[in-house]
Amino acid sequence: xxxxxxxxxxxxxxxxxxxxxxxxxxxxxxxxxxxxxxxxxxxxxxxxxxxxxxxxxxxxxxxxxxxxxxxxxxxxxxxxxxxxxxxxxxxxxxxxxxxxxxxxxxxxxxxxxxxxxxxxxxxxxxxxxxxxxxxxxxxxxxxxxxxxxxxxxxxxxxxxxxxxxxxxxxxxxxxxxxxxxxxxxxxxxxxxxxxxxxxxxxxxxxxxxxxxxxxxxxxxxxxxxxxx
Length: 228
Hints:
Layout (H helix, E strand, L loop, with lengths): L1 E6 L4 H13 L4 E8 L9 H22 L3 E7 L9 H15 L3 E5 L6 H13 L10 E5 L20 E4 L4 H10 L13 H15 L4 E9 L6
Parallel strand pairs: 1-2, 1-4, 2-3, 4-5
Antiparallel strand pairs: 5-7, 6-7
């Protein structure tokens, strides 16, 4: 099976489903699409920005390779400014990759995240995979991202309420190793985007499902054609 991970920024894919990627990559073809540059909102010079962008893409490629991803696709939408560009441009960039690799499953952001880029990525994915004609995408999952999903003001309209859990007891260390590659993105505890924070969330999600460690998802769509 072909699975496409669609993330707004470098490291979102590791935080959201790195353990799942490592678990499934041995028996499935997994690809990653990263839509945003990741650092352009920071107050640095153009020359520094260019250098850091190059390094961040290098780290992203290395982290994804460590998890078993076959290929990483990069777009260059401005960081934390997805709302300044036409949503159609994001949709088309997603459609382009979908047409190229033809995934049966897509995993992406939760619609209720604090980060506007995460919200618009979710919207763009749903628009790009409308179930019309001969759509090949049969399953859509959304993941949570530490320091975004839980930081939003939570109410019944945006809270992350997982209904799907994947056991990552054997691949949590791989997820942590991949996160270590993102040297510019990782933080010290008690920041949630720290190695300790990642492990604590995996343990919490595991407790919810009777597992040692797990990643949690919301099932957005599942299309099954059962045989008689």
